[in-house]
Amino acid sequence: MTEPSKKEQLYQLIHANPFISQQDLAADLGLSRSAVAGHIASLIRERRLLGRAYVLPAPRGQRPVVCIGAANVDRKLRTIATLQASTSNPATASETYGGVARNIAENLARLHTPVALLTALGDDGAGRALQDHAQAAGIDTRGSLALADTASGTYTAILDAEGELHVALADMALYDQLTPEFLASRAPQRAAAALTVADLNLPLETVAALIDSARADHAPLVIVAVSQPKMARLPHDLHGVRLLILNRAELETVAGRPLPTEADVRLACAGVQQRGARDVIVTCGSQGVFHTCDSQLVWLAAHQVKVVDVTGAGDAFSAAVCWSLVQNADDSADLTLACRRGLALAAVTVQSASTVAPALEAGLLEAISNTDAAHDPGHAAPLYTTN
Ligand SMILES: Nc1ncnc2c1ncn2[C@@H]1O[C@H](COP(=O)(O)OP(=O)(O)OP(=O)(O)O)[C@@H](O)[C@H]1O
Ligand SMILES: O=c1[nH]cc([C@@H]2O[C@H](CO)[C@@H](O)[C@H]2O)c(=O)[nH]1
């Protein structure tokens, strides 16, 4: 098969990312800037491009949440009977779309929130399937990085017969190419965000660059942890971070010690706040969540539900919290309300075999308001050790 002409390749790049700069076009295609300008002028003459535009921000309610991080293929292997270590277990296998940033983006799209995803995709079947699926879900993937001769990210999880995770393996080296330079090349899309959500699949320097720009632009940034080993990607200086969401084991990694009591969790959160993060949410699996409220902690119990598969519960929780944050035009979002919405979406997700529960409706979250707190199962007595 003959390779498309440079002009055609340039057109495809602009089609995929209308924000792309002439400098990036020149670098990607191995052309000079003047050759790029010549092709653009020719495409305008042919009316395949209608001109070069100034980009104005959309009205607030239509500005997207921009999610930055992983889009993986998840392989889940679930034992049929009780899982036994160091031997072969009869199991069933399934494949779904995953990656923390992608899962959050899909949850938000299903809740009818405008959302864009900046990720890296390989040039394999998985990359094309991830791209098609995201587009069909209504996620704007035009700013994502298409990598030649690279396999897409994969996550392989071993679940027991009850749907609880035993071990998981993450093959995701391609996200190391989501560098600060890549971020800079997507500055126009990022500037349009109502909220930026970054997962810790990103390299440390990239997360630091996102924090720097959130601080400089006074723009809200939520950071979502993905695993204990990848807590090493959390920069020390967190000034500019609106919210850090992580599970208790990940907070233990940050603290460098076990956190068996509520007082331990409070101290560890205070440490993260001293590093500059405004708020912290600590998810505690089937028990519930803590969130900071100035120097105090608020505890909310999880819904008691029958688990089908826990994969994606944390991402659904994070998506509902982000959904809640963008409902307020000012900075007055109520974190307790956001977490109650998170618990509700996570409960729906653990009861579904899918990583992102299908058939979500924003009404599910809208129905949870400040006025119904007393009737909410999320306000049951703490199950967590409090001494
Ligand atoms: N067994 C469960 N029953 C009810 N709710 C659950 C259960 N497990 C998780 N959840 C809900 O999901 C939220 C996030 O779970 P968890 O603390 O395990 O996060 P996570 O480790 O990031 O999850 P994951 O990696 O599976 O997406 C919890 O706060 C809770 O609301
Ligand atoms: O290192 C990582 N492990 C797991 C995930 C993703 O977490 C999801 C479940 O919460 C799952 O979809 C997996 O791909 C990731 O993005 N990075």
TrEMBL record:
Its EC number is 2.7.1.83. Pfam families: HTH_24, PfkB. It comes from the Bacteria. One of its GO terms (molecular function) is pseudouridine kinase activity. CDD domains: YeiC_kinase_like (cd01941). It is an enzyme of class 2 (transferase). Residues 65-358 form the Carbohydrate kinase PfkB domain. InterPro entries: PfkB_dom, Ribokinase-like, WH-like_DNA-bd_sf, WH_DNA-bd_sf. Keywords: Kinase, Transferase. This is Pseudouridine kinase. It comes from Duganella phyllosphaerae.
